[in-house]
Design a protein that fits this description.
Helix content is 29%, strand content 34%. The protein has seven helices and 15 strands.
Length: 236
């Protein structure tokens, strides 16, 4: 059986697709969620074989979501959309297939056959990922999309990854590696990324260690390993 996650902001659409997949007796539904933040967490914890992913969702679209997955996560993707024009885009992103809403059993059966033919060699989407311009974060019971222009630095700890702005900090399901590669942030420490435009000054200490002071007065450590690259980025 293939382990699958369904991502759709419409609860009825999620349940209908889950029911149809269940009827095939070929899938184990390991998760259902309605937004990108929940999906990132589920994909990381469940490691599904297949992601049935709605293209159009509020805040972060399905295409954006695929670009936020870590490279070591390899779910095959079946895009689900109400608009036929997204089909071409789906195949450009190397999706296994796409389904038009409302999903028809006959069409789903062809998708199932395609997935089974590829089982053991399911392709991961080869995205030319667009730059991340807003970081989805959890803020109480809502999702906050933090613009990159507001980000001073990002830190990682045992508690998770936090995006820090002048106004406060927010938890995100994105990893440092994804944010470094796709959000234009610069690694300055094993556990820290910094937004170069938000740096006010760098203090150099002993043993080639340093401390960044951001424009709002926050401080960020700089390790010896990453100091040379940081200085080059700043033209120092």
């Amino acid at each position: 059986m293939l382990r699958a996650i369904i991502v759709d902001d419409e609860p009825l659409a999620r349940e209908e697709l889950a029911g149809m997949l269940g009827e095939t007796a070929r899938f184990e539904i390991v998760g259902k969620c309605g937004n990108a933040v929940e999906a990132l967490k589920l994909v990381r914890s469940e490691r599904p074989d297949v992601l049935f992913l709605d293209v159009q969702m509020p805040g972060v679209s399905g295409l954006e979501l695929v670009g936020m997955l870590d490279d070591d996560l390899h779910p095959a993707v079946v895009f689900v959309t109400a608009h036929d024009e997204f089909a071409v885009k789906a195949f450009e992103e190397s999706a296994v297939d796409y389904l038009l809403k409302p999903v028809e059993k006959e069409r789903l059966a062809r998708t199932v056959e395609r997935l089974e033919d590829l089982h053991g060699d399911l392709p991961r989407p080869q995205l030319t990922a667009p730059p991340i311009t807003r970081i989805p974060c959890l803020a109480q019971r809502s999702i906050k999309l933090v613009p990159m222009a507001d980000v001073e630095f990002v830190r990682s700890s045992e508690a998770g990854v936090y995006v820090v702005t002048a106004a406060g900090e927010y938890f995100t399901e994105l990893t440092l590696s994804v944010l470094e590669a796709r959000a234009g942030l610069l690694r300055c420490h094993k556990q820290f990324l910094v937004h170069v435009d938000r740096i006010d000054e760098i203090s150099l200490g002993e043993n080639s260690l340093g401390v960044i002071k951001t424009k709002s007065g926050n401080t960020v450590p700089v390790s010896r390993r990453h100091l040379t690259r940081l200085r080059a980025a700043l033209g120092l």
